[in-house]
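Run log, item B.
One chain of 265 residues. Sequence copied directly from the ordering sheet:
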Amino acid sequence: MRKYLQLAKITFEEYFVYRLNFLLWRFRAVVQLLVLYFLWQAAVPEGVTIFGYDQAKILTYILGTSIIRSFVISSRSVDVAGQIASGDLANFLLKPLSYLKYWFAKDVTDKILNLVFSTVEVTLIIFLLKPPIILQSNFLFLLLTLVAIIIGILLYFFLSFLLSLMAFWTPENPWPMRFLFLIFLEFFAGGLFPLDILPKTLFQALNFLPFPYLLFFPLNVYLGKLTMAEIFLGLGVSLLWLVVIYQAVRFTFRAGLRIYSAWGR
């Protein structure tokens, strides 16, 4: 455990070496948030309810999504593909540590920093713009929201890691696949709008995929829009996907190592 804590500390220090990159990343996140905020504020005026969302619910959803996105849909495992393609993976295979735990330790540091900055950004927006927001006071809903977020964090980590492992078979240029995945994910995770405004059949089909459980599901648990039966069904489906994707990561990593060649290493 001590070596992974030391790794987290080193990862934290890296952000202060490349401060400009991190600040540009946060600036882009703030701009995206403000665009969505003003778009939905105009689309759902005060006193109007659309698709079951009044202005307070939709703005709480947008602001809440920004905070949850900052530490759920963020992962340092994107660099795994580069290590595989460059041959640097061979260096880690010789060390007494778990490659998966190595990247998860880096991920945790990344998520903590993003969460801190995102919380400050959203707090400033609330202070300056004074939007109507919903503060959940039911402890059970808050606890279930936390459980859903933790599952979402693990889901995205393994999804991102699995995608990066495709570099075993496509080492030349894995970025187009990653870019398309992020666009697809942002849409079907509910990062741009609540998924339940989609046609009912499409929305019901999406509930059997892992993507809504990254953003949309935790936010709706927080807002109290789901019954207990719907919450526990959602938690069950997301846990099932977590097990499936984790096993897929283990299988793919072992399969990739069998064909892996680290030229020049």
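Observations after the first pass:
- The mean pLDDT is 84.
- Residues 228-259 form the longest helix (32 residues).
Flagged for discussion on Thursday.
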